[in-house]
């Protein structure tokens, strides 16, 4: 399935009431919190890690990400390329506790115009 096909499936069930950007961010936080709660219950209460539910929550995160990418005119492929470039620069050999970080330089190719109208 391509990103466009997935987006088409997502928008079929999307509620277009209000600010899509804000809705996506709330959704990402709540779905991430569900994964965190699952891990907390596993680690501290000895519950079995429910892999079926974990997969469902990851799918929910993908849902919100797909809408968010479209909302800001960015693609999953672009995000992946940008992320690997950033990580390669920060950690040239491999992950280390000491970080080489120059965010302005890392993201210099991104247009600095506000994404949200009116800002």
Q: Can you give the helix content as a percent range?
A: 55-70%
CATH class of the largest domain: Mainly Alpha
**CATH architecture heading of the largest domain:** Orthogonal Bundle
| Unreliable sequence segments | none
Largest sheet: none
The gyration radius over C-alpha positions equals 17 Å
Structural class: mainly alpha
Number of domains: 2
Shape: globular
Topology, number of strands: 0
CATH topological fold name of the largest domain:
Helix Hairpins
- Elements, N to C (H/E): HHHHH
Q: Can you count the helices?
A: 5
**What is the first-to-last residue Cα distance?**
35 Å
**Which band does the percent of strand residues land in?**
under 5%
- The overall pLDDT, averaged over residues, is 86
Protein model, in words:
The chain is mostly helical. It folds into two domains: 1-73, Orthogonal Bundle (Helix Hairpins), CATH 1.10.287; 76-119, no CATH class. Helix content is 66%, strand content 0%. It contains five helices and no strands. The chain has helices spanning 3-13, 20-45, 51-72, 76-90, 103-106. The longest helix has 26 residues, at 20-45. It is globular and about 40 Å long. The mean pLDDT is 86.
């Amino acid at each position: 399935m391509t990103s466009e096909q997935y987006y088409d499936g997502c928008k079929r069930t999307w509620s277009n009431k209000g600010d899509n950007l804000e809705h996506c961010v709330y959704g990402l936080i709540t779905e991430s919190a569900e994964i965190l709660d699952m891990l907390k219950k596993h680690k501290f209460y000895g519950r079995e890690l429910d892999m079926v539910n974990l997969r469902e929550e990851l799918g929910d995160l993908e849902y919100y990400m797909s809408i968010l990418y479209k909302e800001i005119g960015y693609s999953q492929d672009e995000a992946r390329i940008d992320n690997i470039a950033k990580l390669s620069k920060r950690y040239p050999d491999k992950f280390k506790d000491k970080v080489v970080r120059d965010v302005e330089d890392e993201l210099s190719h991104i247009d600095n115009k506000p994404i949200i109208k009116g800002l």
